[in-house]
Specification:
The chain is α+β, with helices and mostly antiparallel strands. The chain is built from ten helices and five strands; from the N terminus they run ααββαβαααααββαα. Strands 1-5-4-2-3 form a five-stranded mixed beta sheet, with helices on both faces. Strand 2, helix 3 and strand 3 form a beta-alpha-beta unit. The radius of gyration is 18 Å and the shape is globular.
Length: about 230
């Protein structure tokens, strides 16, 4: 599994303006200023799934499945930043690049290669921006390695990791979890290994995060009741 990510990625300035209002609404929801329009319903807003994933004791594991080439994942990224900043310390957030097709593999390998080199924090938003703002397709290993080198990552070390067993193993593990959870598209969010939230079910990116908030609150309630 991937390590929890920190939040010092380069800001998505243009997208922040687009999502300012949903962000304020989510903030208001978190402080009880306004009530949610409806409670999240199983089968309508999320699905219950059966995986081997377990949250660390006393914490709540939230896993995002994404692909750099996905425009929905790109737009979600701007909404994730403020959302992650207000999550409690009991929430562990992980990003997992997922390859749902052969042509997804290069960019998926790129994420795990950067992760192996502890370079995701410095490159994650830059990859999204290059693809979706600058039109850089980053379709093959050499082009991807050149791009990461421009971001300050050692090119030779990156290619070694990109083609290495550890990256292939991470791709395999992520694929197994995604298959068990029934992930058929990205972005998808798996909470506590048992709740799958997708944009198709929830109705959009902002709604995904609202549903995730409700499920996290529900899990907190379960954990509190077990302690008492």
């Amino acid at each position: 599994m991937t390590a929890p990510m920190t939040l010092s990625h380069r800001p998505f300035r243009a997208l922040r303006r687009l999502v300012a209002l949903p962000g304020l609404i989510l903030l208001a929801l978190s402080f009880g200023m306004i009530a949610p329009t409806h409670a999240a319903a199983e089968g309508e807003d999320y699905r219950m799934v059966d995986t081997d994933v377990e949250s660390p004791e006393g914490q709540i594991l939230v896993q995002e499945f994404f692909w750099y080439g996905c425009p929905h994942c790109y737009h979600l990224e701007a909404e994730l930043e403020p959302w992650l900043e207000r999550l409690g310390a009991d929430v562990v957030f992980e990003r997992h690049a997922l390859a749902l097709g052969q042509h997804w593999l290069p960019l998926t390998q790129a994420f795990y290669a950067a992760e192996a080199l502890d370079a995701v924090e410095d490159t994650h938003s830059a990859v999204f921006l290059a693809i979706h703002e600058d039109g850089n397709r980053l379709e093959d290993a050499e082009a991807i390695a050149d791009f990461y080198a421009e971001q300050g990552v050692d090119r030779d070390a990156f290619l070694e990791a990109f083609n290495g067993f550890a990256v292939q193993n991470q791709i395999r593990k992520t694929g197994q979890v995604a298959q068990a959870a029934g992930v058929r598209g990205v972005p998808s969010i798996l909470i506590d290994g048992r709740y799958l939230v997708t944009g198709r079910l929830a109705g959009g990116n902002a709604q995904m995060l609202e549903v995730a908030d409700e499920l996290i609150a529900e899990i907190r309630g379960e954990q509190d009741s077990q302690v008492q």
